[in-house]
Design a protein that fits this description.
Radius of gyration of chain A: 22 Å
Shape of chain B: globular
Subcellular location (chain A): Cytoplasm, Cytosol
Strand order of the largest sheet of chain B: 3-2-1-4-7-10-11
Strand content of chain B: 5-15%
Order of helices and strands of chain A: HHHHHHEHEHEHEEEHEHH
Number of strands of chain A: 7
Region (Disordered) (chain A): 94-120
Protein name (chain A): Translation initiation factor eIF2B subunit beta
Structural class of chain A: alpha/beta
Keywords (chain A): Cytoplasm, Initiation factor, Protein biosynthesis
Structural class of chain B: alpha/beta
Oligomer: heterodimer
Strand content of chain A: 5-15%
InterPro entries (chain A): eIF2B_beta_subunit, IF-2B-related, IF_2B-like_C, NagB/RpiA_transferase-like
Number of helices of chain A: 12
Largest interface: A-B, 53 and 58 residues
Chain lengths: 278, 733
Amino acid sequence: MAEAVKEKPSSFAEVVENCCAQLRRRQIQGSLPCAKRTAEIMRALLTMQRHPDAASLIDDVRAVGYKLQAAKPVELAVGNIVRRVLHLIREEAQTEKSDSEADSNDAVPQGKADGKQDVMKSQGVEHLHANEVILTLGMSDTTYAFLREAARKREFQVVVAEGAPRYDGHLQARKLADAGIQVTAIPDSAVFAMMARANKVLVGAHAVLANGGAIAPAGIHMVALAAHKHSTPLVVLVGLHKLSPQFPHDPDLLYNDFRGPAEVADSDMQARGLPQHS
Amino acid sequence: MDSKKPDLHRTSSRRSTHESQVEGAVPVPKTIVGFHVDGASPSPATEGLLSKEAGRSSFTEGGGSPTPVIIPPTFQRERFETREPTPQEGSAGASTGVAPAFGSVPAGSTSQQSGEGSIASGIPASARPKSLDLPAPDVPGPNTTQQQGNSGVVPPFVTSPAVVQSAVPGFEVGKPPQSQPAQPSAPPVHRSPSPAAAAPAAGVAPSSLHGFSVNSAQQQTQPQAQQAQPSLPQQQPQRLQQPPVQQPQKQQPQQPQQQGSSAPKLKEMSKAERRALQEAQRAAKAGGQKDQDGGSRKEGGGGGGGGASAGRAHSVASSESHSSHRGGAAGGKESKSAATGQKAEDKGAPAASLGDAAAKAPKRRPARKVVSLNSTELFAHLPPYQKVSVSSLLSHKDAVHMHPAVLQLGLRYADGTIKGATARCLAMLHTFCQVIQEYVTPPGKSLSRDLTHELNTIIDLLVQCRPLAVSMANTIRRLKMRIHSIDVNAPEAEAKRALIEDIRRYIEVQIIAADRLLVDCAVQKVTDGDVILTFAYSHIVANVLTKAAALGRTFKVMVVDCRPELEGQRMLEKLQASGIACSYIHLNALSFVVRDVTKVFLGAAAIMSNGTVMGRAGNAAVAMTAHAHSKPVLVCCESFKFHERVQLDSITHNELGDPDALVSLPGYPGVSPLAGWQDIPRLGLLNLKYDAMPAEYVTMIVTEYGMIPPTSVPVILREQQQDASASGGGGGM
């Protein structure tokens, strides 16, 4: 399936279908890869099909966008990219009234990546002072890049909660320590205890919603509650592709992703719960 | 002077008989009592440690401790800084920090102080291989050796250069005439308190040395050698009480170079290498002395030491720096070295080079203190986690005389077999009953005093295994009051019987009956259709829920669990055995399920007088989340766990668990990235056992007195205290 996408696909529909299948099977993990993939699809749409005017282009983009988003409803970055593309199309149509706006589309994915880097470089130092204690949960590339940039000019320490059952906090702790930052790894249960000594909480998020809420890996709600209790500022670091105009009417159902219970309860425990027949 | 050195040694503070023995024709295999690293290269049988502890005061009897000394060179450099003898027993089986262990290194040669075996100059000298300009060895040397018997042979790292510098600067034993040229390494040398410089001065026999014990004379010369250096080394003299070293000046230049060549870090050296290094240093020192004194004593010692290896070491030493060693060390040290040299039979050759490296190591001064950015240091006031093993427990100084039930109990605490405040308290009381049952008052002592003393030693041992829980502390306090009130004239059997009776009654009233009342009270709060949330394992909550199920209520339970202890699985098993429908989630998923929960039942390890609830780590997060969703939180806790102190956060009073427990991920495919965290300098792991839940999250506390709000805890405490004082010493606990 992947090869079909790499080569010039026979039809654009196949390309879209491949991408949807990969999204459904979780073969594309993470917001940024999904966003990039969506941008590629959009570009392919522009190059592979001729559109007489902006209106038809918008219709096509919207149709493809629905398909992609339906493949993985929890991945809001897909919809965000599609909306951005639509916005760009409308802008171009307004200004130029020309046929193809392929160039505008190319700028989308690159611009995002660059923009993020600049944000890291400029703001990391602004928001952290010396000898600060930063609390974070789990693994986030954005947070990692942010802290690493800030560590060039500031001396601070990071407390990383492990983020079970993913345990990606271990990876975050290791990477930060290897980057020369003083790190302490704690289990999630100690977050409340350590919050008393944390100056800031820096976390990444899966998506940020229109009401300011964030969707993030499990455990973030308790970190946020603890930060609120201790009046510790909580900063969510996200790339622009994660900003979503959606409102969380029922976030726990709509924007949640469930994984297998084996990560939490091994099969012995599950077997004990089965009806016992003597 | 050199020839006199041995005499000086002898005349000065009483040499340990060890020395005298050594001086004898037949060298006794000298083992330097040092800190014993569990699992290190095989050392004589463990009981040697106990016998060593017992016979510490009498350093010799030839039986001496067979345990060889292992003093990594890096620590030697810090020895000079502490003057006071470090506790010896720390060495015994101390697998924990080096600090305690080092203390135990006795100064061999000198023993002004009561016979602590002292590796004495042997060590410090050995620390610096042939070259005296090794500051580090000197530094410790002065302390160790001079302090005759100063166990500070290896003072804990606490030493700081500042300490030395504050010493009397003007005190110079005698300026070595040619210290300067010989000190290419002077700058680094003098950094280390030990006056390695003194070494080069060598020959100078400080006239003022007489003030010091002979042992230090040797070291003193070194400081002199470094007169040119900042006063720092000069202060050494007063600490150094070794006989003046008469090293040829040329030695020093050699040494620094050699030292500079390579200084393998302590970590990089294997244990064998380290030991070889030690032995080589000792041998070198012995060899040096031998050269200086040219006494047959050394020969005898060398021969006794086991000849070939010792000789090899000696030859190596002498080749390196002939007569470089402070002659002072006297025969005793040297023979000691020789004796120990035999241990390094196979390591004589490499030891020499290692010695150089090691000698250089001490020169590295500990960096000046910088602001620590390590979160784990927030908990520096708490005892660090110590892995307790059977051998480490048995090497405790009191373990020999301890009732085996106490040792068993301690081990069960340490490995988690007995967990939970109530269970630990119960087990402790049962053990106390056993101990009291078999206790016999020694003649001439009063039961209450001696029993209290006995209990104190038991408690010390238990604390070594695992810090006391609040429930245990409360109980011990009451028990001591009760023992204190024992009538002096009462017959022992009767007093013991009454005491055990009171303990049994305490258990019955405060734990068993209290639990029953508590369960009856809390069960009223479980109604049909409830979804009850509980966290980790609490025996009282489990009892409440099983009782409610037995009464026929229909409810569901959500068990929240957290790493690394995963006690919720035990709760899950217990509830499932009672046929209760359960769900099991990890702590991070709590915010998802809490909206469906109707009540939260939690246990507690202790409740403070401001209503703060100490529980398993994660308790506070559960209560906070429930509170945020307006769910009632009921804490079930017997009153004997109430404590009158006020706790503001989870850091002031807590317990540190095993950091390695975070690294092991059972069932996780792959190895955690944290594996090998000890080797990563900037990575620390923190495993907290307890958590302080603020009173605002607690809706109600269920005790055997009924249901009370968190603000009523001090009321209960006050009433308990009044009861206790009213009953005075007469009644039960």
